Amino acid sequence: MDLTKTSKYLSLILRHKPEAVGITLDEHGWADVEELIAGIQKTRPFDFKTLTKIVETDHKQRYSFNEDHTLIRANQGHSIPVDVELPVTVPPKILWHGTRQKSVASIDEQGLLPQSRLYVHLSGDPDTARKVGSRHGKPVVYQVHSGQMAEDGYVFYRSVNGVWLTKRVPPEYLEK
Ligand code: HQG
After folding, report:
1. Rounded distance, CA 120 to CA 3, Å?
2. I need a labelling partner for 24 at 20 to 30 A (CA). Which of 30, 38, 109, 132 fits?
3. Reported CATH class of domain 95-175
């Protein structure tokens, strides 16, 4: 079985489109593990062991089980409005955002906007940002003056897998 393909499907379900397998998420983004497995099994072979393997081997730690493994959720990246209960966290002075060349003119004008997701995603180091930006071609990496933003009242969260999240980044806090 192609685990990467199945993991991408899992991301789609748990971040954007639970209805694809006929399930719903609760307000905190949790899906019922039994319902999820039954839903995925309608289109492909899938079981609890495979799900656990995906969760444990995912190199970005995209998913979490609850304590007794009856519920599962994506740690970040949602487009549907769920609250994954992240505490407000003071960011480091500088965070990073990788994007594609095509978006630069618009970002320079509007700043970073969450687009289809709930938050703008920021990285803790430039290498990670570069990788995020390379998903769609030649990357451009922005420095984000997150320390200044926090001082000015902007709120930041850090997902359990280490992605920094904020609602928007106005252009005056960005530097290429
Ligand atoms: C861009 C992956 C035009 C923004 C990664 C980005 C990440 C603007 C795109 C996670 C803009 C949105 C998220 C503006 C922002 N005008 N374009 N004003 N403001 N953009 O995929 O940050 O593998 O929703 O630069 O590792 O690229 O899925 O966000 O290019 O952590 O777990 O709009 O997705 O993780 O794209 O990536 P995305 P992202 P996973």
Report:
1. 27
2. 132
3. alpha beta
Listed by start position, the domains of the chain span 3-74, 95-175
Residue 2's alpha-carbon distances to 25, 30, 45, 105, 132, in angstroms, are 25, 24, 11, 38, 22
Task: Identify which of 103, 131, 138 to mutate to test ligand 1's pocket (most ligand atoms within 8 A of the CB).
Answer: 103
Give the residue-averaged pLDDT of 13-19.
98
The fold of 3-74 is Arc Repressor Mutant, subunit A (1.10.10)
pLDDT tens across 40-76, in order? Answer: 999 899 999 999 999 999 999 999 999 999 999 999 9
Supply the residue whose CA is at minimum distance from atom 3 of ligand 1: 103
38: its two tokens: 């039954």
- Quick one: which atom of ligand 1 is closest to the CA of 106? 16
- Can you give the pLDDT at residue 19? 98
